[in-house]
């Protein structure tokens, strides 16, 4: 069986609020760690979210 191209990743807030998003990532085209600027409702502002493993 072939390896899946997409995996689920957890995007954790850099504001240390504990808030996170779960999204998909194509491992063949995006080899580095993903970073996105998204809204953190706990901090009530847009902050950077970084990729972490789903446990």
Automatic annotation (TrEMBL):
InterPro entries named in the record: Ribosomal_bL33 (IPR001705), Ribosomal_bL33_CS (IPR018264), Ribosomal_bL33_sf (IPR038584), Ribosomal_zn-bd (IPR011332)
PANTHER family in the cross-refs: 54S RIBOSOMAL PROTEIN L39, MITOCHONDRIAL, LARGE RIBOSOMAL SUBUNIT PROTEIN BL33M
Organism encoding this protein: Acuticoccus sediminis
Key words of the record: Ribonucleoprotein, Ribosomal protein
Annotated protein name in UniProt: Large ribosomal subunit protein bL33
Gene3D superfamilies: Ribosomal protein L33
GO terms under cellular component: cytosolic large ribosomal subunit
Pfam families found in the cross-reference section: Ribosomal_L33 (PF00471)
């Amino acid at each position: 069986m072939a390896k899946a191209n997409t995996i689920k990743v957890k995007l954790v807030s850099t504001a240390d609020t504990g808030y996170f998003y779960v999204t998909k990532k194509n491992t063949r085209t995006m080899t580095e760690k993903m970073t996105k600027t998204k809204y953190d409702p706990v901090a009530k502002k847009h902050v950077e979210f970084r990729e972490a493993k789903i446990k």
